[in-house]
Amino acid sequence: MHFNFLLISPPDEGLNHECKLCNQTFDSPAKLQCHLIEHSFEGMGGTFKCPVCFTVFVQANKLQQHIFSAHGQEDKIYDCTQCPQKFFFQTELQVPYS
Predict the structure, then answer these.
(1) Half-sphere exposure of 73 (CA within 13 A, CB side)
(2) Does an H or E element contain 4, and which?
(3) Using 50, 70 and 90 to split pLDDT, how confident is the model at 58?
(4) 76 or 29, higher pLDDT
(5) Rounded to 5, what percent of the chain is helix, strand, coil?
(6) Where does the C2H2-type domain start and stop, copy by copy (predicted)?
(7) Rounded to 5 degrees, what are φ and ψ at 42?
(8) SS3 17
């Protein structure tokens, strides 16, 4: 299962959205997504660069908003070797299938 599918939790799961990389839980899919963006930029000095247009942000949530407002599916740059999906961030590929 990839990151995109983790954003939509079945109703019986409640409000817990778990990061499959570090097991931290969040109360919304958007917060989980922002957290996964932070995983993508660990050790990069606290800045978040758009993988498509290289605009730099100081907050992961601002990069998240930018990607959804400025870029579409065709801009995703990482290909999954297991399926036809494409992703904006390499960490999305590292989320194990469940």
Answers:
(1) 3
(2) helix 3-6
(3) very high
(4) 76
(5) 40, 10, 50
(6) 17-44, 48-76
(7) -60, 135
(8) strand
Side chain identity at residue 35, one-letter code: H
Among 69, 70, 67, 62, CA closest to 89: 67
Return the sign of the alpha-carbon dihedral for residues 62, 36, 69, 74. Answer: positive
Amino acid at 32: L
**Cα(first)–Cα(last) distance of the chain, in Å?**
5
Only one residue has tokens 């989980």, namely 32
Report the greatest alpha carbon distance in the chain.
39
The pTM assigned to this predicted structure is 0.67
Contact 61, 32 (CB under 8 A): no
